[in-house]
Structure prediction request, 140 residues.
Amino acid sequence: MQSNLDFQALVASVGDGVMASDASGAITLWNPACERLFGFTEVEALGKSLDLIIPQRQQKPHWDGYHKTMATGITKYGNDVLRVPAVHKDGHTLSIAFTVSMLHYPDCKVSAIVAVIRDESVKFAEDRLLRKRVMELETQ
Prediction:
């Protein structure tokens, strides 16, 4: 069944960030919500490495996993929600949660990885304060 759904309009209008990157890790899709989350315009992000938003200390483990996923076509994360730090254009750190999905060429090789991203910085900070408060109460 053919859908009349305009996928470009859908991706542009959702509140969560939607981004994609190719086999080399270059950003190929960057919706308006990504611009709000990370501060980079679509023009600034497209064609750039994902290092644009990955904290330096996280880059090596990220790329090790990314290249393995692209080579094997298998991700250990499946439908899991991943929670990691990210970097905003102005340099401040974000706490993001996202899911990933792989797109494939007809020959089954991975063509892109798509992420749907949400900023959870406020929730992360609140959880940290709550854990700290619980620890303080337990030590009394």
Summary: The helical segments are 7-13, 32-38, 42-45, 56-72, 121-139. DSSP finds five helices and five strands in the chain. Residues 11 and 74 are 25 Å apart (CA to CA). The chain has a mean pLDDT of 89.
